Structures
1.
Amino acid sequence: MPDSFRSLAEIFDKEPGLKNIKKIINESDVIREFNKIFPDFEKVVVPVKVVKKILFLRVENPTWRSELKFKEKLIIDKINKYFNEQRILKINFSR
């Protein structure tokens, strides 16, 4: 391959104009992979969106919501470890 060719990952990382696209892709990756990271939560938690590194989760049951709030740091750490970078800073639990 000629030296002038670059991978998509390299282009997204180095081109300032593409920073927003990389951010959107990273945010959607968290939503798409959430049930793979936490298969036990599949029936009680729905990942809704990620905005400014805040993950929005819909939890219908107040008991589960309280339990997950206590484990928020562990959930964040597991997500960030899965992606090998800090993608989530906080979680917002809603109904």
2.
Amino acid sequence: MDHKLIAASAVRDALGGVSDMTLWRWLNDPALNFPKPIYISKRRYWREASLSAWLEAQAEVAA
């Protein structure tokens, strides 16, 4: 199981350079089911495996 954590800035870059506001919108849109971050010292991190699974699900929806 992959437990690698990715910081918010790297997540934004990996998702095509989206803004922090876009991340906030995705997190607050239940229809998107965007993975929830893990907070460590007020910083947000995402599990790499959760992001990969979400991206694959989005690709299937778009297909």
